[in-house]
Design goal:
single chain; 2 domains; globular
C-alpha cells in the first residue's frame, strides 16, 4: 500500500493529494525514511548519551540547550510544553491564555506538597521527581534528539484539518501533513504508520476540537517535528 492509497483510505479529497504528497516527500527526504539517518542518530543518543545528558544538568535547568548550546542536537524540541523535566508540568493563566510553566516542580524539599505532586505527575519514571537525574535520564531515553526533528520540521498554522477512516488519520496544518494509523499487512501482522510532520503533537483534540497544545520558546518558530516511522505490529485480539 502506498501513500496515495493511505490518503484515499482516510478520505482526503483528490484535489489535495498533490499538496499532501509534496509535504510527505519533504518529510521523508529530511528524515531519510524509516531506517534513515535521523532514526540512528536518535537511537544512539537515547541509548548511549541519556545518562551523560542528565549528569550535565543542574536541578534548576529546564533544557540542555540552555547550559550546553553546543549539544543542541541532543536536546528536546524547543517548546514550553517539553523540558528536560518532562511534559507533564503545571499550566498557568497568562494574558495570552493558559500556558505550560516550564519552571514548575522546582522545590527540592521531599516533604513539600510541590515535590510530592511532581512525583505523582511523573509517568516516564513513576515515583521519581522529574528534576532528578534518574528521571531526566529516563526522559532523554524517550525524547533525545527531538531538537533535530524540530529543525527538520515544518511550520504550522493556527488550524487543523482532519480526515479519518479505515484506521487511517490524516492531519494538515498549513503545509504540514501527517499520516498515522494501523493498516492490515500480512495475516495477524499490521503496519503502524506515523509519517510526515507531527501535527498531532502540536495540537491536541479536546472534546472533538483541535486546539494548540505546543507553544514555542521565545525566538523559536512553532513547527511540527519531522517523523517517518513504518513498522510491523501484532493485531490486538
Amino acid at each position: 500500500m502506498n501513500i496515495t492509497q493511505y490518503l484515499q483510505l482516510a478520505g482526503v479529497p483528490h484535489d489535495l493529494h498533490a499538496q499532501a504528497l509534496h509535504s510527505l516527500a519533504s518529510a521523508r527526504a529530511a528524515t531519510g525514511g524509516t531506517l534513515g539517518p535521523m532514526l540512528w542518530r536518535k537511537h544512539f543518543v537515547r541509548l548511549f548519551r541519556a545518562g551523560k545528558i542528565a549528569s550535565l544538568l543542574t536541578w534548576e535547568d529546564n533544557r540542555l540547550i540552555d547550559r550546553h548550546p553546543e549539544l543542541a542536537e541532543w536536546d528536546i524540541a524547543p517548546v514550553l510544553n517539553v523540558t528536560c523535566n518532562g511534559d507533564n508540568s503545571i499550566w498557568r493563566d497568562t494574558p495570552e491564555g493558559g500556558r505550560p510553566d516550564p519552571n514548575g516542580w522546582a522545590n527540592p524539599d521531599p516533604g513539600s506538597v510541590d515535590y510530592q505532586l511532581a512525583c505523582q505527575r511523573n509517568y516516564w519514571l513513576p515515583g521519581a521527581h522529574p528534576r532528578s537525574p534518574e528521571a531526566r535520564k529516563a526522559w532523554y531515553r524517550r525524547n533525545a534528539c527531538e531538537y533535530v526533528a524540530w529543525e527538520l520540521g515544518c511550520p504550522v498554522e493556527t488550524d487543523v484539518q482532519e480526515w479519518t477512516d479505515n484506521g487511517i488519520t490524516v492531519l494538515r496544518s498549513g503545509d504540514a501533513w501527517q499520516i498515522r494509523g494501523i493498516v492490515k499487512w500480512f495475516g495477524p501482522i499490521r503496519l503502524k504508520i506515523d509519517i510526515g510532520y507531527e501535527v498531532g503533537n502540536v495540537f491536541a483534540k479536546i472534546n472533538g476540537r483541535w486546539v494548540q497544545s505546543w507553544y514555542p520558546l521565545p525566538g523559536y518558530e512553532l513547527r511540527a517535528c519531522a517523523v517517518w516511522a513504518v513498522y510491523p505490529t501484532l493485531a490486538r485480539a
